[in-house]
Amino acid sequence: MSAPLHVIILAAGQGSRMKSKRPKVLHCLAGRPLLHHVIEAAEGLSPAGIHVVIGHGADEVRAATPNQGIQWVMQNEQLGTGHAVDQALPGIPDQARVLVLYGDVPLTSISTLARLVEVVDDNTMALLTVDMQDPSGYGRILRGDSGEVHAIVEEKDASDTQKAIREVNTGLLAATGGRLKDWLPTLSSDNAQGEYYLTDIIALAANSGLRVDVAQPRDPEEVQGVNNRLQLAALERWYQRAQVEQLMLGGVTMPDPSRVDVRGKVQAGQDVFLDINVVLEGEVTLADDVVIGPNVILRDCALGSGTVVEANSVIDGARIAEHARIGPFARLRPGTVLAEGAKVGNFVETKKASLGPGSKVNHLSYVGDATLEGQVNIGAGTITCNYDGVNKHHTRIGAGAFVGSNTSLVAPVTLGTESTVGAGSTITRDVSDGELAVARGKQRNISGWRRPSRDSEPTG
Ligand code: UD1
Ligand code: CA
User: Fold this and answer.
1) Among positive and negative, which fits the CA dihedral 340, 342, 347, 348?
2) pLDDT digit string (tens) for 56-114?
3) Which atom of ligand 1 approaches the CA of 196 most closely?
4) Is 237 helix (H, G, I), strand (E, B) or coil?
5) DSSP-assigned letter for residue 48
6) Catalytic residue list
7) Distance 81 CA to ligand 1 centre (A)
8) Which ligand is nearest to the CA of 11?
9) Domains and CATH numbers, the chain
């Protein structure tokens, strides 16, 4: 059996190059903090422990991160990456394999990480390097005559010859707990930044005869660090490209994949169509033949096959069956459930509302805390008055009911099966099956009435 795996994630730095009040690791990529991406990758290795080193904005970072299974380690002063790793070591057994990740390197694949940890033992450490077109800002890998790695030099400490080296340190490495405990206390801060560099352990390992096993990731973007907002945006685009490519290869059509953004997990069937400026957030499931028009936001929702969402709609926390029609300009809020063939049209807002098969709310309505059975027709401008200022109340509408335009349904209230409500009514009492309810001022027509006229021409 191999030694237990512990992951240390460094997240204590301020990230001054972000020019931000927020700690760097809380800046978002694809809608989630950088740190959460790193934690998810670590979890993919099923380690015995995940130790996150925090310092700058520690409370904020902790509060923003789900805590299950994470051991928080305080680094009160940010004295460098070597010092940061050292803070976590007391909680880690000597025989453990330790993988060090950086909170600002968010997109490393699990297979790349697994490759690093599998070679580690007391005589071998693993280092992830990458060749970069533009290596500026990164530590450079120094190799000896026979190609073996013998040190890393940070950009700020590098000579011009060293700066020309394109192979750089990703920051990700692995060694045993015992080795790290030997090396880290011996680091010196005698360098350009006055910091304890984790990277100096490579020279220590090489000098004590350990093998430094070097791996490279499949894509250089996997190990790109985020130091400023330009790098954050570049990485976001790379990530988005990978997401939409997967969707397209799975059978989704997009006229412009660069204008579809995935900020969560999307499952899509075949022949789904996503028009431009579609944003998918949280968990989104789209069955076969779903059509999404331009400028639509879909958040935490499931759409049945053949459902069409027209332009400028926002769907959040809704379950929608097959062949429903939504929008343009509809807003479906959490708790909305549409049965097969239901329709929600323009300028309609729904919340905790369930529409039965074939029911329609086509124009300018608010339907909240309501249950509509099948084949209900709600006229334009109808409002469920669900809130009395203190409590929310429910509206029930039976199958085949017809509600005339501009009606207020004052909840709690029930409209029976096949009941009808005259336009402009304010309904405060239940309506029985098949009844017609009309609740509005009677129309009076006054003949011979004259419009007022001005008394005289204004003077002065
Ligand atoms: C580091 C590496 C460099 C590598 C690059 C890859 C060192 C000395 N240099 O440089 O070789 O090419 O990453 O992205 O390791 N942190 C702490 N405590 C500290 C200092 C940093 O937790 O005292 C954390 C930061 O929050 C960050 C990570 O460590 O998440 C890396 O620190 P950063 O200052 O960004 O290092 P780089 O200069 O990018
Ligand atoms: Ca960095």
Assistant:
1) negative
2) 999 999 999 987 889 999 999 999 999 999 999 999 999 999 999 999 999 999 999 99
3) 8
4) helix
5) S
6) 363
7) 6
8) 1
9) 5-223 (3.90.550.10), 245-437 (2.160.10.10)
